[in-house]
Amino acid sequence: MGKQNDGITPVSDEFKLVGFSNFVRSNPRSDRFPVRRFHHVEFWCTDATNASRRFSWGLGMPIVAKSDLSTGNATHASYLCRSGDLCFLFTAPYSPSIAASEGLNPSSTASLPSFSYSACVAFAVKHGLAVRAIAIEVEDADAAFHISVAQGARPVSSPVVLDGTATIAEVHLYGDVVLRYVSYKTPTSDHDNSSPDSWFLPRFKPTDEVSSFPLDFGIRRLDHAPGNVPELGPAVSYVKRFTGFHELAEFTKDEVGTDESGLNSVMLANNNEMVILPMSEPVFGTKRRSQIQTFLDHNEGPGVQHLALMSEDIFRTLREMRKRSTVGGFEFMPPPPPTYYRNLKGRVGDVLTDEQIEECEELGIMVDRDDEGTLLQIFTKPVGDRPTLFLEIIQRLGCMLKDDHRKLYQKGGCGGFGKGNLSELFKSVEEYEKTLEGRRVAGLASA
């Protein structure tokens, strides 16, 4: 449990929160090594088959690649869900006796060199269904690893070259979560998109699920991956020091909380602002315990709080997801009250049509904007048994720029991160937590 303070005062001399109102956004392009994009997110679990199929069905992400007994991997089962550039990898351990019975070193058959049976089992028991690795594609994973360690990062897995085509390495991020570096010997633009051992990682084989049962709800990439930590100052200073990432935004409890609870938060981003790693800490002295503290308790420490998934058409994505909410998909947090949508026309009527605003109300989508663009967003309930990891579906409107090749792209963080919606989200989470508390109290009373 972190050191308690007044919720605003930072606990590290290297870091000082100024809050959203006083924060001046700038991009010093201070990365310590070239970072390109999010590559994948890996979940450690006890049953990769069922976890991957649930996410595939609920998010419209076909299972496109695998590494398991059928591919010669007697160490772990790993299944890859993919939609656009978004890749979710689900990994679970096989019994070590399987490889041993064949006279093999268990690690020799693994497709992921950092995998450990004991670590995976301990991780799943401690955290439940949770994110183990946030992987980013870098220009040179070997160089990124050694630069990071030289700047204070805790090494987890030294660089390993896989089949002469890709390099993978890991450093500690927070809690039991690692930041994984991936790089390729040849440019990704030259890769064979039909072969996962080329565009993803070697030793993975394609499945036939894309052609046999196509799924696509319009989700295209990971926008940001927020984590919760006990103390924001040391965590932010640590990550900034070894990555060189800059601050993209800040929020304090007085700006985004409710009368009952709140948080302090900082968003870190790389040079092109396509890799965004927000972090939040709990605040104390409020009527209710911080939702961040609830996460830390149930997760037994720091971890990835949620994953923000970018959609090219959030209305289509939400309609498909809601069809499956109660039949193996994901349920959503309760929507804001009708007054929220009655006031919406005055805020974003120049961006969304009346029909789109009505559709936002129908689907429970919240809308926010900054001086550059507009953000549409909605949050799921926790995806597992514990009130920890959840998903955010977003779409950003505006902020279109041209790169050096005159190709259009959207500026990272366009429309902000829902500052104007966070109070509504907090109220919704508070009401959700109250229902859980009520059931728990009723259960104790009847025991």
Would you kindly provide a written description of the structure presented here, covering whatever features stand out?
The protein is of the alpha+beta class. The chain folds into two domains: 35-216, 2,3-Dihydroxybiphenyl 1,2-Dioxygenase, domain 1 (Roll); 220-436, 2,3-Dihydroxybiphenyl 1,2-Dioxygenase, domain 1 (Roll). Helices cover 29% and strands 29% of the residues. It is built from 14 helices and 21 strands. The protein has helices spanning 48-59, 96-101, 117-127, 141-150, 196-199, 209-212, 232-243, 253-256, 291-299, 314-323, 338-342, 344-348, 354-363, 419-446; strands spanning 35-44, 63-67, 76-83, 86-93, 130-138, 155-162, 166-174, 177-184, 205-206, 219-224, 227-228, 246-251, 263-269, 276-282, 303-304, 306-311, 366-369, 373-379, 390-398, 400-402, 408-410. The protein has a nine-stranded mixed β-sheet. Strands 10-16-19-18-17 form a five-stranded mixed β-sheet, with helices on both faces. A five-stranded mixed β-sheet has the order 12-13-14-11-15. The longest helix has 28 residues, at 419-446. The radius of gyration is 22 Å and the shape is globular.
- Quick one: biggest sheet? 9 strands, mixed
Please give the number of β-strands: 21
What is the overall silhouette?
globular
* Multimerization status: single chain
Number of domains as seen in the coordinates: 2
Helix segment count?
14
Radius of gyration: 22 Å
Shape-level CATH architecture of the largest domain: Roll
Cofactor: Fe cation
GO molecular function: 4-hydroxyphenylpyruvate dioxygenase activity; metal ion binding
Subcellular location: Cytoplasm
Protein name: 4-hydroxyphenylpyruvate dioxygenase
